Predict the structure of GntR family transcriptional regulator.
Amino acid sequence: MIDKNSPIPIYHQLEESIKQLIESGQLKPGDALPSEREYSEQFGISRMTVRQAIINLVNERFLYRVRGKGTFVMEQKFEQNLQGLTSFTEDMKARGMEASSKLINFEIIPADAKLASALNIQEHGPVYKIKRIRLAENIPMALERTYISANLVQGLTSEIVKNSLYYYVEETLHMKIVGGTQVIEASIANKEEVKLLEIPELSPVMIMERSSKLEDNTVFEIVKSTYRADRYKFMIDLKRF
Amino acid sequence: MIDKNSPIPIYHQLEESIKQLIESGQLKPGDALPSEREYSEQFGISRMTVRQAIINLVNERFLYRVRGKGTFVMEQKFEQNLQGLTSFTEDMKARGMEASSKLINFEIIPADAKLASALNIQEHGPVYKIKRIRLAENIPMALERTYISANLVQGLTSEIVKNSLYYYVEETLHMKIVGGTQVIEASIANKEEVKLLEIPELSPVMIMERSSKLEDNTVFEIVKSTYRADRYKFMIDLKRF
DNA sequence: ATTGAATATTGGTATAGACAACTATATTGC
DNA sequence: GCAATATAGTTGTCTATACCAATATTCAAT
């Protein structure tokens, strides 16, 4: 179980070993772990070394400790990371729904000042503008307008756009999207949104504007989405530092 | 600087002391800290105790360490904390605005089924209900309804609520809020919200429902907030895994 | 001047032991 | 029976020490 001669630190070996027990279900949420001294004796390692392993797992929220009682497995194992950057397709799949798209418009436009600044390119530079209706279970969920510098992703076609853009960019072009920022606000649907999303006039909508970046920190895309408030809620995990 | 006879752990004293130096600007981003051995000798404490303080600050992203080189102050210590769980007061401060509150209502109510389930208590159990208007620069920003189990936080008074609830809970009761989840959706203001937030009828609003948890994974509070869409945008950082 | 080896300094891992603070259980005294 | 006390077991804090691994510096050989 623990190899003292391994170049891998002992505390790290123990960490992985405990994680394994949790993930395989041999340790269930709420279960008490053996005490630090028990681990120490069982593996012939110092209690401080055991503590280092446990402290790390506590920081990662796999375990929690109560002084005088013991160390226990966290109730809510590992929630999937929302606040993760996901494509619409991935997002809907995580919600157990089937995603599809309807391409409304696909063209190359010159960047206006605001867009050029957001994409970090020259004004009037060529930009793909992709306007799509996003559907879940064939019901309109969002209107999405994606802007990508045409110099960055060359040879984009409407065929590719109809399938998964992220898949093409990551698997074929080998560009790696690493993160971004997203601004969320509430609003009332405008005429175009009312029509395309098939909702009543004056319906509330959630507007999300995302900017995603590649490994080298260049801006990859700007996405403006309008989500139907009656069909979409946004959930995030919070951590207090 | 360090009081060995204080009931406050030495590593915690050192932690606060270093944080102070960073926040006061005496240690600037990129600066190297004294080495662990220097701290150890200067304060007459063990190197392992110094390490415990530094490890905590590294976990909180105040510092970073490089083996063989030293320990340094993080470049962007405050940038990272969106998707961080913040109180309204902290949130507004980060936006450069002054926060205040108006207490609308403070009472103890019996939990209905939904609330009892969310707070993980018995149905009809006593729950503090705190209704507050949150203002930024003295303009209404949000209507906030907070629900806390009365058995968990005893002796809450309207005086405490008028000041900072998080401060009281963390500093006086020594409860540690570690995280939570938040659901965001768009809607139209109802009559009460229109009146209290001083907005036109049919105005769009952003509704956020937060559940925060303590170290031992018990639910601490449920907060339902209604934010004026014209005054509030929500920004998060995204990471792709 | 440049290279290369030795030395010093830094953080990383690990040990052994001590006592404190807290919890649960068993025992004692009434 | 019940309450107070003792005891054992848990995590929390702290010390002192040792050696490893990575980096920086010093100094000698070329």
User: Anything to note?
Assistant: Chain A touches chain B through 42 residues (CB under 8 Å). Residues 9-11, 45-49, 52, 66-70 of chain A lie near DNA strand C (CB under 10 Å from a C1'). Residues 88-228 of chain A form a domain with the Chorismate lyase fold (CATH 3.40.1410.10).
